[in-house]
Write a structure and sequence with these properties.
The chain starts with a helix and ends with a helix. It is 81% helix and 0% strand. The relative contact order is 0.05. The protein is elongated. By secondary structure, it is mainly alpha-helical.
Length: 86
């Protein structure tokens, strides 16, 4: 049985609709909280390095990310130039 059929089989259809709406609202709030937590984790800064190896790894990771950003920017500029040549 689908949700619509379950609702239509209830004696008080309006009450059943309100209950389903409340359930969906709770589910939506839980998903929003989960999304908020995952986004916070994704953009949170890395913890401070505790030893020299961690510090070196962070520097290497930052250098690689900068290199990726610069190369992506150059590729975009080259793509726009080739697309809009005179």
């Amino acid at each position: 049985m689908t949700t619509a059929q379950e609702i239509l089989n209830q004696q008080d259809v309006l009450l059943a609709i309100q209950q389903k709406k409340a359930e969906k609202k709770v589910e939506l709030e839980q998903l929003q909280k989960k999304l908020s937590v995952s986004m916070t984790k994704a953009i949170a800064p890395l913890p401070r390095a505790t030893n020299k190896l961690d510090f070196a790894m962070q520097i290497a990771r930052n250098a690689f990310n900068i290199w990726q950003g610069v190369s992506l920017g150059l590729n975009l500029v080259r793509g726009f130039r080739s697309a809009f040549k005179k």
